[in-house]
Amino acid sequence: MNKKIFIIGAGLSGLAAAITLEKAGFSPVIFESTSKAGGRIKTDIFEGYQLDHGFQVLLDAYPKALEYFDYKELELQKILPGAILFYKGRSVAIGDPSRHPGFLFTTILSGVAGVKDVYRLLVLYRDLQKMTDEEIFSSEEMSTLNFLKKRKFSNGLIAKFFKPFFSGIFLEPDLKTSCRMFQFVFKMFARGSAVIPKAGMGALAEQLVKKLEKTEIHYNSRVERVSDGEVWLQSGEKYKADAIVVAAEPGILSASAEPSELKWNSCETLYFEVDRRTIKKPIIGLVRDPNAIINNIFYHTSISCAHKGEKELLSVTIVKDHNLTKEDLITQVIEELKVYCKIDKVDFLKHYQIKRALPSLESLKAQWPGNIGKAGKSIFLAGDHLLYASSNAALISGEGAAKAVIEKLR
Ligand SMILES: Cc1cc2nc3c(=O)[nH]c(=O)nc-3n(C[C@H](O)[C@H](O)[C@H](O)COP(=O)(O)OP(=O)(O)OC[C@H]3O[C@@H](n4cnc5c(N)ncnc54)[C@H](O)[C@@H]3O)c2cc1C
User: Fold this and answer.
1) What is the per-residue pLDDT across 319-366, written as a single tens digit (0 to 9) for each?
2) Which of 22, 25, 26, 186 lies at a C-alpha separation of 20 to 30 Å from 293?
3) How many angstroms separate the alpha carbon of residue 398 from the centre of ligand 1?
4) Residue 169 pLDDT > 70, yes or no?
5) Cβ distance 204 to 392 under 8 Å?
């Protein structure tokens, strides 16, 4: 129990590793390079509003999230299972009528999904409910776009709904992401809801930190390098380790370690203060015009927030590459909000550019891959990049790495 275990990174995977190690009686030490836990899931309070680092949600059906989080304490706020589609200044609401009857007529009348599409959606829904996550993550690999075509969804439904909706989830505009991810996310959407904690997404990490009783977290402590049995901090300190969990990008490992350079999907989120909401209900807005730079919008004050600010809070997410300066981008977004969404009089608050938002992976896995995860005799890797880009995967990987450490030390 006195073994020296170091965890690099206090994102969800590092925190899940610490919780698992504590349960087995160990007292790990976390080195985190920033001043706060959460990694890619953080919330700032700015001019009274809570701003998540990029628009993101938790799917409350995630199996690992159900084990790790106390949903009641988080006061999860549900987002409606549908979307408002904006096109040429017009808008239409579509959604899952089985979960929200109000969507029945609007979806049928929208012209976005034909009868055959609805039938194919039901068949996909049924097929995925029967599949385990392991089966989904070992199914044939292809891009999501090819998968949707193979399932014979109409070009209209793909262009008008699937593309903007899943671009906002995968953070890439072409649906190149593996169809394994699409199937997993589709299954999770069908089983539960997209939710945001009342205090913002950062509350997820804060809740995990609160669970830790025997773990020391050192913030502002960047690890420069690890090798078997040793951890070097940027400050020059060096520590002997019985085991190391690298729950950060694996670049800090010595040259021989796996996996190699990661590629990332990026996004930008701009927050605006507005006088009134043009969408009253908590539902995502999608701009489906191929020339638009905006992908999706959401009024965060359409759900209960712990920090509300004085007016309404709107976020705009961009997933396309562009060469605009920040000022030009803000100007273009304000113009597009007016033209496509009929939203005017917005006051810019803050811009988040997230270059490393989601790892772009070629082959996805359901379970922590012991053989790849172990980078040296005493080094174990964790992080969503080992499995698939999601908070559920981050938790699975952290727990898996910690269990491997426990097995090794015993
Ligand atoms: C904009 C955006 C939208 C997203 N949307 C969703 C969504 O809707 N649903 C979903 O499930 N997932 C979503 N995700 C993904 C989810 O946030 C991640 O899968 C998850 O947070 C990854 O956790 P992690 O612990 O693997 O990595 P990270 O959160 O990246 O944690 C790594 C930690 O290591 C620290 N670190 C790095 N280098 C060092 C070093 N040298 N020394 C010490 N510490 C170091 C970092 O500061 C960080 O705290 C989204 C992510 C983003 C950014």
Assistant:
1) 999 999 999 999 999 999 999 999 999 999 999 999 999 999 988 999
2) 186
3) 12
4) yes
5) no
Site of tokens 């055959």? 116
Q: What is the pLDDT of residues 225-271, one digit of tens each?
A: 998 899 999 999 999 999 999 999 888 876 555 555 789 999 999 99
In order of their start, the domains of the chain are 5-38+202-260+363-409 (3.50.50.60)
The residue nearest atom 21 of ligand 1, judged by CA position, is: 40
Answer with the residue of higher pLDDT: 257 or 12: 12
Cα end-to-end distance, the chain, whole Å: 10
The answer to whether the predicted template modeling score (pTM) of the entire model surpasses 0.90 is yes
Cα(169) to ligand 1 centroid in Å equals 15
Mutate to test the pocket of ligand 1, among 40, 184, 225, 395 (most ligand atoms within 8 A of CB): 40
Q: Which of 44, 191, 72, 88 is nearest to 131 (CA)?
A: 191
Nearest ligand 1 atom to the CA of 224 is 41
> What tokens were used for 40?
């890619």
User: Closest Cα to atom 29, ligand 1: which residue?
Assistant: 39
Residue 302 has pLDDT above 60, yes or no: yes
